[in-house]
Amino acid sequence: MEKPKLDMDTRVDITMAISRYLRAKEDFRVAGAAFNETIAKLQAILPANTRYVASNYGTYYLVETRSDGAFDITEIENI
After folding, report:
1. Strand partners, 51
2. Block means of pLDDT (10 residues each) for the chain, length 79 residues?
3. Which of 8, 23, 41, 50 has the fewest CB atoms lying closer than 10 Å?
4. What's the pTM?
C-alpha cells in the first residue's frame, strides 16, 4: 500500500487538530474528576428524603434527595 503524500499545510492542520484533541481530552478528564468529586461531596452533605430550593446567580433550582443518596437538581422558573 502506497502512503499518501501530505503537503505541508495538511500536516500542519493534522498536528494542530491532534494538539486540540489532546488538550480537550485532558480538559475533559479534569472536568470529569471535578464533577465526580462534587457529586460525592453533595451526596455526603445533602440530607436524605428532602426537597428544597437553591439559588445560584439569580436562577432557582429544586433539589430533591432520596434515601439512597441520589439527588436531582432541576431548574425552576420561580419560587
Report:
1. 64
2. 86 97 98 97 95 95 95 92
3. 8
4. 0.70
* Same structural domain, 66 and 40: no
Residue type, 44: A
Asked if residue 34 and residue 53 are part of one domain, the reply reads no
Give dist(CA 48, CA 51) in Å, integer: 9
State CA 40 to chain mean position distance: 14
Element (H, E) at 62: strand 59-65
- Asked if 39 and 65 sit in the same domain, the reply is no
Q: Please name every residue paired with 75 in a beta bridge, in sequence order, or none if there are none.
A: 61
- The range of the structural domain enclosing residue 73 comes to 47-79
- Cα separation, 47 vs 76, in Å, equals 21
φ/ψ bin of 63: left (φ > 0), alpha (ψ from -120 to 50), beta (otherwise): beta
Strand pairing report for 71-76 and 59-65: antiparallel
In a shared domain, residues 59 and 27: no
